[in-house]
Design brief:
The chain has a six-stranded antiparallel sheet with strand order 1-2-3-4-5-6. The longest helix has 29 residues. Strand 3 and strand 4 form a beta hairpin. By secondary structure, the chain is α+β, with helices and mostly antiparallel strands. This is Cysteine proteinase inhibitor.
Amino acid sequence: MQRREITERKKLEMQMEDYFASADRIRKMECGGITEINGSQNCPTIDGLARFAVDQNNKKVVPKKEFVKVVSAKQKLVAGMLYYITLEAKVGEKVNVYEAQIWDRPWLDLKELTEFKRVDDDPSTDSFDRSYQIGDQFF
């Protein structure tokens, strides 16, 4: 009988730990905190958002980029969800790392690329490959 009580107690303790860990994640999201998306490298949703970011960027700038893979992703609850995705994309044969911000509002069926920049961006790089934010003009 005592062994069963210990097992039940451990089970309850584990459930409480899970509950409080989940509550902490929810609290961070409710307060606008940025949370890491575990397993983002293998998540079809994040992969689709990363490809969307590269496609949208390709409409604005040259040279064109080819999506390679997701490196990592974070999210922030806003009026919708703001995704911060680090990804790899090729320009020719060279693979570069980029950071993209995508604002997703599914109830409006609306996704917007709000920022796209090369991680190692510096003033000496090709001007067409520098970061931009929505509203910038390209000719």
